[in-house]
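Supplementary Methods S3. Input chains for the assembly prediction are listed below.
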Amino acid sequence: MPKKKKEESKVEEVVAVVEQKVEAVEPKVDVAEKVEEKSPEIEKQQYSRERMEAVSHYIYKQVSSVVFGVLSPKMIKKMASAKIVTPELYDKEGYPVDGGLMDVRLGVIDPGLRCKTCGSKLKECIGHFGYIELARSVVHVKYARIIQLLLKSSCRECGRLMIAQEKWAKAKSHLDRIELEEGPESRRLAVKALIESKGGKCPHCKAKQSKISIEKPTTYIEGDKRVSPIEIRARFEKIPDEDIEVFGLNPKTARPEWMILTVLPIPPVTVRPSITLESGERSEDDLTHKLGDIVRINQRLFENINAGAPEIIIEDLWDLLQYHVTTFFDNGIAQLPPARHRSGQPLKTITERIKSKEGRIRHNLAGKRTNFCARTVISPDPMLGLDEVGVPKIIALKLTVPETVNEWNMAYLKKFVSNGPGKYPGANYVVRPDGKKKKITDETKEASLEELQPGYIVERHLMDGDVAIFNRQPSLHRMSMMCHRVRVLPGRTLRLNPAVCNPYNADFDGDEMNLHIPQTEEARAEAEILMQVQTQLISPRYGLSVIGCIQDAISGNYLLTKLGEMPREDAVQLLACVNVTDFSRLPSKKLVNGREIFSVLLPDEFDYESASRSGDKVVIRKGILMEGIIDTKSIGGEGEGLLLRSLHKKFGPARTIGILHQIFRLGIEYLVQHGFSTGIADEDLPQEAREQIDQLLHQAEEDVAQMIQSFKEAKLEVFPGRTMRETLELKILERLNKARNACGQIIKAFVQDKNHAAVMIMSGARGSMTSLIQMSACVGQQAMRGKRIEKGYRERTLSCFKRGDLSPEAHGFIIHSFKHGINPKEFFFHSITGRDALMDTALRTPKSGYLYRRLANAMQDLRVEYDGTVRDANGRIIQFAYGEDGIDVARSESGKIDVQRIINEN
Amino acid sequence: MAKFDVTKHELVPKHSKLTEKERKELFEKYAIDMPNLPRIYKSDPAILALDVKEGDIVKISRKSPTAGETVFYRRVVG
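Predicted C-alpha cells for the full assembly:
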C-alpha cells in the first residue's frame, strides 16, 4: 500500500507541524487557558438562567478566557527539558550530542526511537522545549516598539511612569476610554504622547530625563549614549506593577523586563525536523541552522567574558548575538541583512513560517485541501442531463466510493475486487473491519477476494449514478457548488450540460472545474437533498430560474415556434431525438407547425400567459402553445425565463429539469436538422436600406450643423440649469443617438428570418441590436463618461481638425460601419473609448471581487430565525424582518409576491 | 444661521421612545433581552429631542423600498 500510506503520512505531517507552530510562537506569547466555573458578567447578561440551565449539561468545561502574555525567564527554564550548551549536533557515530541542538530530550524525529523526556514514540511525542542561557541579554525584536515606548514613558531614575500623582486618576480614565475604543496599542501610544507633552522632568523624583531614540531595529540611544539591554532591563525592573498596568500591560503575565531576553527557549526538534537525503546525509532545518549560530556566538561570548577580553570585542560579539537572535525571530527586517544559507537563499525563520499567504495560518490552517477530488478542463455535452456530470474514465479509475459489504451485495462487490484497480468497474482498496486498509493489486487480488465478508469495506471505482459535488471558482454563490450524478465517459475532460453554465459562470475557453466525491452515506444524503441541481433551479437572488436555455437552444426554439411547419413524420423524428416516446399529443395531420411540436413537451395541465421579447403575447392553455413565439423571455436562464418559473411552481423541480432538458435539446435538434450558421453576409444590407441609412445619417449631420450654427449665433434654446455650450452638447448627443437608433429600425425592417445573426438577436440568444447596427450601418458616437470625446489638444481632439470644431466627426462620431470600414480618425476615437473600457473593467473586476468577499465574510454567520428576524451568531438582531419585508426571495417572483394572482388562481 | 432641525428632513425616519409597556411587549415578541438589540448613540441627532437616557429603546419607522414601512428598535447607549 505504498501510495496511500504516503498520502496519509503527509497529512499527519501537516497536522504535526500545526501543533508545533503553536508552541513555536510561545517564546513570545504565553497562551494560558483559564477554565473558570464562574462566567463573567457579560455572559450572565446574554443567557438567562433558564437558558443556561437548559443547555449547561452539554458543556463539560467552558473556556472563559484566553490570555496572551510574555514568557518569563523562570517560565522558560521551567518548561525546558534540556539546557543547550554546544552548537554540535551529532557525534562521530551520528548520535545526537547531549546538550546539543538535536538533544534526544527535545523529542523524537526518528522512527523507532523513544523520547527521553516523555517516553512516547514518534508522532505521539509532540516535542519538548530546551533553553540557552544567553551570555548577555538581548532585545526581543518583536517587542522593540513597546520597549521604546516604555523607555520614553518611564523615569530613568525611579522607574515610575512619568504622570504626576494628581493627574493619575484622570489620565487613567482617559486611557481606559482610548483602550476600549482603539485597543491597547493606541493606549500605549497615548501614554507616550501624554508624557512627552509634559517635557523633560520626572514628576515623582524630579530627575532630569534625556531624549531616547531608537536606532532600528534594536538599538536604543539616550542622549548620545547607547542604552544596553542590561540597562533597559534594570530600568524596567524598577517599574512598579501599578504603573505597568496604566501603561497597558498586565504585570502578571507580561512584565516588561521579560521582553529583554536573558534565556532563549529552544523549540523542540519536532518543530525543526532534519531531512535525511538519499545519500544518507542529513540536512538540517533552517531554524536549527539559526539556533546553531546563536549557540556558537553565545559560547564565544561566554569565553571572551570569562577570559576578560577587551570591551570592544565583547561588544562586537554581543551585537552579533543580538543579530542572530533577531533574525531567529524575524529574518525579514528591513534594516538588517537577512541571514542566508551558504547557497545565498535567505533562511526561513519563525516569522516567515507564520506570515503571509504561504505561512502557517493562511496556507495550513485556513487552507482547505481534500482527498477524493478531481480537477480538469471542462467541455460541453448537451446530451448529458442537467444534473449529470461527465467524468473521464481515467479519473473514475482513481476516485473511489466506499461500500460496506453485506450478505446481499457480496457478489456484486466481489466482481469489483476481482476486476482490480486496472479494469474499469473495479476497486482500489479493501478495508478490514479493524480499519486496516489494503491495496488491491494483481497479487493480492485473490487473497482479498477470499477474505471478503460482511463488515468489510470495498473502495470501488466511481460509477454512473454516483453522487458528486461539482464546483467552479470563484465560489461566490451557493450555486457554485452543486451536486451532480456521475456519468463515466471516454475522454479527458469533465463534461457538463451547457445549460448549467450559468450558475457556475463557466464557459469552455479553458475553464477548469473541481469534482468532489462524498465518502459517507450522510454526506451523500446531504449533498443530494441540499445541493442537487434541481434544488438550485430558482436563484435566491431574484426568485427566478438561474438555469435555462442558452444560445442555440433559444434560437432553435425561436425558429421552431416561429416557422417550424413540417410534415408529421419529420416532427416525430425531431421529437424522438429528444427522447419523446409518446406522440399522441402531436396532432394527427399531415403538416404540423412548430408550436404543436413544442407543445408536446409541455404537461397537459399547464396554463401560462406572458409576453415575448417583441411584446407579443405568449399563451399556453392546457399544455398547448396557442400563440406566440418562444424566446429568451420564456425559456432563458438567469432571471429571464418566466415559463421555467411557472413550470417549477406547478410541477416541482424534478419535472421542470426534465422538461427544460427536452426543450433544450429540441432547440438544438431543430437547428441541427435545418441548419444554422452566421457569417459576414448577415451584415449585408440591401441597396435600398443602404440608401435610407445614408440619407438618415446625412440628415442627422445636417441637423447637428444647424445646431452648431445657431449656437454660434447664440440663438440656441437653453435647457434649464445648463449653459448654452452644455445644451449644445446634449442636443448633439441626443440627435446622433437618435440617428443610430433609427438605423436599427431600418435594419429591422429589412432583415429576414434567414439572417441568422438577426435571429439570434431577436430571440435573445446572443448579440444585441446595437452590435448589429455597429457592424452593418453605423458605429455611432464614441462617448467617454457620457460626453463626446474632448481630450487631446487645445480646443481640438486631433491636430487635423480646426480649433473649436464642434462637428460630430471632430468629436468621435463614427459614421461608418465596421463592415464598411472606419477611417483613421474614427479608428483613433474608437481606440480611445476601447482602451478606456478595457481599463475600466480591468480595474473594476478585482475591486468588486474584494468588496464582495468582505461583505460575505462580514455576513457569513447571519441567519433568519424562525420568528423572521435576522440575527448574528450571538443572537443579536440585525434586522427585525428579513429584507425588511420578510419575503424569502427564492419563493417569490423577482422579490415580489403577487397576492392578486394567487387569489385569482384559487 | 437658524438651527436646522434634522428630524424635519425627509430622509430622517420617525424616531420615538418606547413606553415601559411597549418595551415589555417587544422583549416578549422576539424573546430577547437588552443586549440583543441594535444600538443607537444617545448623542444621535435624530433622538436628541426625545430626551432619552441610556437603556431606553427607540422605535424607528422608516420607509423601505421593499416593504413600504418597516419598524426598527434600537437601544440607546452612551
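The CA atoms of residues 17 and 51 of chain B lie 9 Å apart. Chain B has a mean pLDDT of 86.
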